[in-house]
Design brief:
The complex is a heterodimer. Chain A is mainly α. Chain A is built from seven helices and no strands. Chain A is 72% helix and 0% strand. In chain A, helix 1 (3-24) packs antiparallel against helix 2 and helix 2 (28-48) packs antiparallel against helix 3. Chain B is mainly α. Helix content of chain B is 75%, strand content 0%. Chain B is built from three helices and no strands. In chain B, helix 2 runs antiparallel to helix 3 (59-89). The radius of gyration of chain B is 17 Å and the shape is elongated. Chain B starts with a helix and ends in a 13-residue tail after the last helix. The chains are: A mainly alpha, B mainly alpha. At the A-B interface, helix 1, helix 2, helix 3, helix 4 and helix 6 of A face helix 1, helix 2 and helix 3 of B. Chain A: Its EC number is 7.1.1.-. Chain A: It is an enzyme of class 7 (translocase).
């Protein structure tokens, strides 16, 4: 087993283990930390799959942005004075059944399929400058989704600020 | 690295199932949001893995980036709603909130 394969299974075990521990964790803060571990391991997997721009975006946006906001949310919605926020589980049996059934179905379907690359496409060598190509594509072929994403982000910013604002709203 | 693409997809299936169970079973709105993020990440992993089968073609990675953008919006608006509900109802248990008449 060469080094990239070893790293691949290393990251995969970290991601699967942290996600599995998330099922049993009862402290919300520990849950957020476990999700950070999953996201960082996934960033490692993206690098091994030749998607370094997605990996860096994952670290910057997810692990650096969303999870910090979520930890702020955890701290703002606990009024327990230093005690950790411990939660309970509801519907454990039905949730486990649904999860196992869904996982079994996915594994069954995936193990039946063989995914092979299109022969003509597979002959193309892997480009080493993925980031440069992605930037050029964002400004040419994907400029409409790019601008739409910008408008969506603006809408989410304004919407979040309005929803979370302090004023008593009978007429908003 | 000659890892078969199935090993990416198995991890994606596992992460999606874990996210589903977390969304159903946890009694906390923020953990439900974290489960949603896990499910979005599982789909992202599949997109990147399939893109690895087609080198020289970056549609999968592009789609993954847009999924990340949408996930950011979802997390921001979702947390704003969670904070507002906590201020009005003093609870963060989703089952306790059965009306939105603020």
């Amino acid at each position: 087993m060469n080094a990239p394969s070893f790293l691949f299974y290393f990251f995969e075990i970290i991601a699967a283990g942290a996600a599995g521990a998330l099922l049993f964790v009862r402290n919300v803060f520990y849950g957020a930390l476990l999700v950070i571990a999953v996201l960082l391991a996934l960033a490692g997997l993206y690098i091994l799959a030749f998607a370094e721009f997605v990996a860096v975006t994952q670290i910057l946006v997810y692990a650096g942005g969303i999870l910090v906001v979520i930890i702020f949310g955890i701290m703002l919605t606990t009024r327990l004075g230093g005690k950790p926020l411990v939660i309970e589980h509801t519907r454990s049996i039905s949730a486990t059944l649904v999860g196992l059934a869904f996982f079994g179905m996915l594994m069954y379907l995936l193990s039946r399929e063989t995914f092979v690359a299109h022969p003509a496409k597979a002959a193309t060598p892997t480009t080493l400058d993925t980031t440069q190509t992605l930037g050029a594509l964002l400004m040419s072929d994907y400029v409409l989704p790019f601008e739409t994403a910008g408008i969506l982000l603006l809408m989410a910013l304004i919407g979040a600020a309005v929803i979370a604002s302090e004023r008593k709203s009978k007429n908003v | 690295m000659n890892v078969p693409v199935h090993h990416f997809l198995y991890l994606g299936a596992f992460l999606f199932s874990v996210g589903l169970v977390v969304v159903i079973s946890k009694r906390n709105t923020i953990l439900v949001l974290l489960g949603l993020e896990l499910m979005l990440n599982a789909s992202n992993l599949n997109l990147v893995a399939f893109n690895r089968l087609h080198p020289g073609n970056l549609q999968g990675q592009m789609f993954a980036i847009f999924v990340i953008v949408v996930a950011v919006c979802e997390a921001a608006v979702g947390l704003a709603i969670v904070l507002r509900i906590y201020r009005e109802y003093q609870t963060s248990v989703p089952d306790d909130v059965n009306e939105l008449n603020l």
